[in-house]
Amino acid sequence: MTSQPTSAPARRLPAHASPARLAGAAAHLAALGVVGPIAATILATLFGLGLGLLPVLGIGLVFLLAFVYGLFAVAALETARIDGLYGAGLPPLRPRRAPRPGFGGFLRMVWAQFTDPAMWRALANAAVATILGMLLLPVAALLASSVALAFSPLYATEGVASLAVFDLLDLDIPTAWAPLVGILGFLAAAAAVVGLALLHGVLARVIIVPAREAQLAEQARVSDAQRAGAMRASEVERTRIERDLHDGVQPRLVSVGMTLGLAQQKIASDPDAARALIEEAHTSTKAAITELRQLARGIHASVLDDRGLDAALSALAGRSHIPVHLDVRIDGRCSRDAEAAVYFAIAESLTNAAKHSRAGGCRVTVRRREDGTLWARVEDDGLGGARILPGGGLDGISNRVLAAGGTFRLDSPQGGPTALEVSVPCAS
Predict the structure, then answer these.
(1) What sign results for the dihedral spanned by CA atoms 411, 412, 414, 417?
(2) CB 277 within 8 A of CB 266
(3) What is the pLDDT of residue 3?
């Protein structure tokens, strides 16, 4: 019994070689061939003005700053263009944040923005695409002229037709040969358009799309940072619990034991004094229970699981020692880790504001953004000057947020106000 030969599966074209994406790439290149040189001229002008006017009271710094963020704008548009055209899954470019408040932090932010590798990859791709677009424009003109030439016998009256491409080419073709030359020119121009579109897709994947190894290395780096943040957050939390137990509940329970011991000694000889000691021990016991309840709430807020972040923050604001203006707009629920990270960041911020900043009020804003992140901002009107110290409350916030895959930003100049922002992926 002989087996029937199986037919080989049909080979699929690469994603960037599909007809729709080739047509889109050709349209993009044609647009970049016109817009790209204009953008490059504007950026070069800003850079030249910045360097030329730098000695004049630092006016050039304004132009250099516009140059840097002009580069960022071009790179962000190029990244969005490539992602929309090829579906490469590129993350949108985000402007860099100041690592610390003040002018020094601002300069570091601008320098980090200027040296951002992702921005320069996008700019390199934009430059290559602009060059390809400038090559595509005369090819497109040849394509249109070839079509007109192929049909020239229908309208030519002098026995001669013209094949013109801007100022680069101007040929007179006898009408008898015009259809053949027009068809050949059309085929050559169409092949050139397809080739430029294909080349654009290949180069874009080489230049702007990170290599698989780079993506894996970045994922490993983020995973290591999250694991380190989680370990550090758990260590800070354990230290806080130990400190609260040692400094608060434990001495109170020892005092209760000693008071009950004294009451036991006096119960026969001085019942009134024993009764007073028992009442004192009862009051201390209730205070210890309250402290244990607050400590447990600091470890895990049950209302967060039962009713969500909005209700948990409302309860938190109600217990705050300073007035809190709460503005929460969230549609649906996020993951437990994301909600817990944001909740404890806000809780610790309110505690710090009440203890250290001498704030008269605090504003809490929480949003669920379109990019799938849970964002919160806590701002008080206190004295400012907050700093992240190892083992402190802000250190715990930053590590907990980092462990959830989020970002943390503190702005607390001397004299206030203090603003803390956290952003955590909802699916963390």
Answers:
(1) positive
(2) yes
(3) 41
145 is written with which tokens? 């002229």
Q: How many residues does the chain have?
A: 428
Residues 129, 256, single domain; the answer is no
Question: What SS3 string covers 366-417?
Answer: EEECCCCEEEEEEEECCCCCCCCCCCCHHHHHHHHHHHCCCEEEEECCCCCC
3-state secondary structure 131-195: HHHHHHHHHHHHHHHHHHHHCHHHCCCCCEEEEEECCCEEEEEECCCHHHHHHHHHHHHHHHHHH
For residue 2, being part of any structural domain is answered with no
Query: 167 — phi, psi (to 5°)?
Result: -100, 10
Q: Which residues of the chain have pLDDT under 70?
A: 1-17, 57, 99-101, 156-157, 159-162, 164, 166-172, 210-252, 287-288, 290-303, 305, 391, 428
Residue 222 is assigned to a structural domain of this protein: no
Q: What is the pLDDT of residue 311?
A: 84
- pLDDT at position 246: 58
CA 192: distance to chain centroid?
39
The residue range of the domain holding 316 is: 307-425
Asked, for residue 221, whether it belongs to a domain, the answer is no
- Taking CA atoms, 401 is separated from 102, 230, 374, 404, 421, in Å, by 24, 9, 11, 5, 11
Give the up-direction half-sphere exposure of residue 249: CA atoms within 13 A in the CB hemisphere: 16
What are the residues whose beta carbons fall under 8 Å from the beta carbon of 26, sequence distance 6 or more?
136, 193, 194, 196, 197
* Predicted local confidence at residue 44, as pLDDT: 92
Query: Quick one: 349 and 403 in the same domain?
Result: yes
| pLDDT computed for residue 273 by the predictor | 79
How many domains is the chain partitioned into structurally? 3
Contact yes or no for 337/427 (Cβ under 8 A): no
The reported pLDDT for the residue numbered 288 is 67
- Determine the pLDDT at residue 9: 39
Q: Is 15 helix (H, G, I), strand (E, B) or coil?
A: helix
List the end-to-end C-alpha distance of the chain, in Å, as a whole number. 58
Same domain, 237 and 135: no
Quick check: pTM over 0.70? no
Among residues 401, 274, 294, which one has the least CA distance to residue 343?
401
pLDDT for 96 equals: 82
CA-to-CA dists, residue 223 to 14, 227, 245, 344, angstroms? 31, 6, 33, 22
